[in-house]
Amino acid sequence: MQKRIFANRYLVLLVSIILISLCPSKYALSQSAKGGYSYNLKNLLEETQENLEKVEQEIENREKEARIRMYFEKGNELYEEGKLKEAKSQWQKALKISKDPKMREYIKKAEIKAKEEKLAREKEQQEMRKRLQLEERERIQAEKEKERQLLLQQKELQRKQKEEEIARRNEERKRQKQIEAEAKEKERQLNKKARAIYNEAVSLYRSKDYWQAQLTFKQVSDLIPHYARTDYYVKRIAQDIQKAEERKEEIARKEREKRQRLEQEHLAKEKRISEQEALKKEMKLKKEKEQREKEAQMELRKAAEQQEKAYVSSNRKIESLYKKAVSLYNKGQLRQSKTLFFEILSLDPTDPRALDYIDNKIPNRIKQQENAE
């Protein structure tokens, strides 16, 4: 402890000398008549002694304060450990040191300084609170202004949205009315077109052109399903076509039977004649028979030639009609093309090309034209 005090004294002396050397104006002193400077060493040493005593007293007080704090904290630790006597001893040591008059004066000054610092802190905290309150009021006012501006913007946005919604609804109603008007006009035009085709189909049916009527009614169904009595006519046409085919087959059957009966009668007649004249005119009949065979062969040959000519002529006519029909189909004249194809079928009901055009290609072409329109 003495070594520490000695070192502190030496340090204070050294600091004092340095201050004097740096600030000669404070410590100089009077100028002699000879013009030189001299130092008042007596005053210097006295002031140095005072400073030294003050520093020593300050150091001593701080050391005592440190010992008091040490004894107090150690007493608290012992008290926490349950060592009451030892704790009491440490606290008594702290009290004994604090009873020193110099220490009491030091403590009093420390209390005054602490109070001044406390007042300064309180004043600073008060000013800080005022500043914070002012900032808070400004912030609240700014937020209120911001909320007011935001509310105005929201109202303006709502007004614009409402106007846009009204305009959109008006435009939508206008567009809906336009769509409905267009739909009605389209329906009217479609009904008009269907009515024209329907009347044409009925006319064809009444003229017993069943094939053409069937195709025309099909066009009507493609435009408007179940239009007027289209379904009835379609069903009726199928029955009429079947009946017509049956009548045609019946007529052909009767013709075949008639030819067979005539042939049988002719053969029976020839047989009777040959039997009656067999005995009398055997040689003559033989010659006549030969002659008849020759004539029959000639007739058969002629008939075959005529049939071949008729077949060739029919094929040529069919080919000519087919070319014309295909040409009309390519030009888009579907009705005239269909008529020629029906003529081909009248010559050859099994012609696959004419059937393909009537059943497939022409109806598909008509659908394409309607879709294009």
Task: Please characterize this protein's 3D structure.
The chain is built from ten helices and no strands. α9 packs antiparallel against α10. It folds into four domains: 2-99, no CATH class; 110-207; 229-303, no CATH class; 319-373, no CATH class. With 373 residues, it is mostly helical. Mean pLDDT is 78; it is low at 1-13 and 18-39. The longest helix has 106 residues, at 101-206.
Radius of gyration: 70 Å
Question: Helix/strand/pairing class, anyone?
Answer: mainly alpha
Number of helices: 10
The profile of the biggest β sheet is: none
* Mean pLDDT over all positions: 78
H/E topology pattern: HHHHHHHHHH
The total strand number stands at: 0
Strand content: under 5%
Give the terminus-to-terminus CA distance: 122 Å
Annotation keywords:
373 residues; mainly alpha; 10 helices; disordered N terminus
Give the topology.
Layout: H1 2-22, H2 24-27, H3 41-81, H4 84-98, H5 101-206, H6 210-223, H7 230-276, H8 282-331, H9 334-347, H10 352-372
Structure at a glance:
This protein has helices at 2-22, 24-27, 41-81, 84-98, 101-206, 210-223, 230-276, 282-331, 334-347, 352-372. It is an all-alpha fold and 373 residues long. The protein starts with a helix and ends with a helix.
